[in-house]
Amino acid sequence: MFAELPAQVIVSAAESSASPAGSELPAGVREVLGAALASGDEAEADAVVRAARRAYPSATETIGQMVAQWKATRLTAAPASESAGPARNAKLRAPSSQAALPVAKITGEGEAGAFANTGNAPGVGLVGGFKLLAEGKNWRIATAARADYQETADVVTREQYRFSTEPNYKFDDRGYIYGLGQFEEDRFQGFASRYSISGGLGYSLLKEDTAKLSVKAGPAWRVTNPVEGERESVVAGLASVEAKLKLTPSLEFNQDASAYVDAKGSTFYTLAALDSRLIGKLKARLSYMVQHETAPELGRLGTDTTSRLTLVYGF
User: Fold this and answer.
1) Residue 75 pLDDT
2) CA angle, corner 132, sides to 185 and 127, nearest 5?
3) Where in the chain are all domains bearing CATH 2.40.160.40?
4) Mind listing the pLDDT tens digit for each residue in 9-46?
5) Could you tell me if 294 and 265 are in contact, meaning their C-beta atoms sit under 8 angstroms apart?
6) pTM for this prediction
7) Which CATH class is domain 105-314?
């Protein structure tokens, strides 16, 4: 019934429009009544109005004018786009704190450090990346990016980029529909670019505070542009597993694994990470990645491994 408005607006408006009977309502009582109307608390305002009318029956007209002025001010302040009817009245009655709630919760992290690599480009280099998660009641959008860069004697010996975005929609407490888009570039592994698009079903097997486990699977389409050779486009299947295990209040283990399988060749990818909380939102991360291609490009090794030691800041 009551929406929050500045008490000064209600009191000054009532004083400007009050009849001579308004002098029968003490200034202190007038201020208390104005504050109650402006509070947005329906029960409080109703109680103060009734008490004022009982205590000062001769000021009933003034009290009525204050309530009427509050209603007029509220209607004037309402957005012009709100049409008359039940929907509009419901919006006016809704507590202002609900309108201020965010539509989605956004979290993320930034990562930077060093890596040691074996396979097609052995050596030590630098790594950087970020993750961003926007999550609503029944949906979420996860975005991640990572870059590995290495030079040896002023010659670039590793340059790997990986970017992915995954929207999904929960249709019940554990099940969800997902979509996945991914871009990769690693010319030392044999491809200038590789695009993957997938969609399917996912299910959360564990949803505890200390342990989470989810799986998803669906069809995929992959387009590969080799460094040498012709462009390839294949239909594949994707299956992946994501696990999180909180070992102690300051130590957490994460495991991501995925497999793209098609008639020409498959890609198996796994990343295991151990996070240790340092100060506040700053963590140290030790991770190990393995990527295996069953049909590598000509002259390339099938398996690459990368060990990373990084600092991670969450927000």
Assistant:
1) 63
2) 45
3) 105-314
4) 444 544 444 444 444 678 777 887 778 777 767 777 77
5) yes
6) 0.64
7) mainly beta
